[in-house]
Amino acid sequence: MGVHRSARCRGPYGGEGHQADGTDCADPAVFEVARHNRPPLPVCPVHLGPSLLLASGILWPPQIHLIARAPGLPP
């Protein structure tokens, strides 16, 4: 889990590069959602649900990995 501590949320749409509109969430990513032919999508708890519905290339059934502890929770 420690490797991704600096990852920022890219949800809910998962755009990359010049297509990153709507991915301005400054929260740290807690989950990573697997995508087809794309890098995994790091998302915060708020954008997990919307990313499953709106991001491109999401696998179904979804593959979600915990990559960090949610802020505010005890260790």
What does this structure look like?
With 75 residues, the protein is an alpha+beta fold. Strands 2-1-3 form a three-stranded antiparallel β-sheet, covered by helices on one side. Helices cover 13% and strands 12% of the residues. Strand 1 and strand 2 (41-43) form a beta hairpin. The longest helix is centred in the middle third of the chain and has 10 residues, at 45-54. It has one helix spanning 45-54, and strands at 31-33, 41-43, 64-66.
The shape is: globular
H/E element sequence:
EEHE
Q: If you compute it from the alpha carbons, what radius of gyration comes out, rounded to the nearest whole angstrom?
A: 12 Å
Structural class call reads: alpha+beta
Low-confidence stretches: none
Strand order of the largest sheet: 2-1-3
Helix-residue proportion: 10-25%
State the separation between the terminal residues, measured CA to CA. 12 Å
Q: On the 0-100 scale, what is the average pLDDT?
A: 82
Strand content: 5-15%
List how many beta strands DSSP finds.
Answer: 3
**Count of helical regions:** 1
The main sheet comes to: 3 strands, antiparallel
